[in-house]
Amino acid sequence: MSIKLKRAYDKPSKDDGQRILVERLWPRGLTKEKAEIGLWMKEIAPSGELRKWYNHEMSKWPEFKKRYMKELKGKKELVSTLAAMAGKTVTFVYAASDENHNSALVLKELIEKMSSNG
């Protein structure tokens, strides 16, 4: 299993494998050609309500992670689809500027945990 994370604004590379946008909204100012997105899974992204509540406030990060994990439990089919795709190299593409605190990271952790638990 190989899941990479990459900002939407970073240059795509051959090593990315399938590039999957895991954002509800298309990244501002980015053309579809430049993004080289193979699949856009907006339904897997945090809900609009959760996104607005979090608002990238670091003090809310631990609670955001918990709430997003809870949302993902209700999206088992989508998560399973992503987990199956991660049998090959995939890159979860996200728009947030913070590389250490974003929903793609939470999603990656969940899928890696699922695969290690069998």
Question: How would you portray this structure in words?
Answer:
The chain has 118 residues and is an alpha/beta fold. The chain has one domain (2-117). Helices cover 42% and strands 15% of the residues. The protein contains five helices and four strands. The chain has helices at residues 32-35, 48-54, 61-73, 76-85, 103-117; strands spanning 2-7, 18-21, 39-40, 89-94. It has a four-stranded parallel sheet, with helices on one face. Helix 3 (61-73) packs across helix 5 (103-117) and helix 4 (76-85) crosses helix 5 (103-117). The longest helix is centred in the last third of the chain and has 15 residues, at 103-117.
List keywords for this structure.
118 residues; alpha/beta; 4-stranded parallel β-sheet; 5 helices; 42% helix; globular
Write the layout of secondary structure elements.
Blueprint: E1 2-7, E2 18-21, H1 32-35, E3 39-40, H2 48-54, H3 61-73, H4 76-85, E4 89-94, H5 103-117
Question: Outline of this structure?
Answer:
The protein is α/β, with parallel strands linked by helices and 118 residues long. The chain contains five helices and four strands; from the N terminus they run ββαβαααβα.
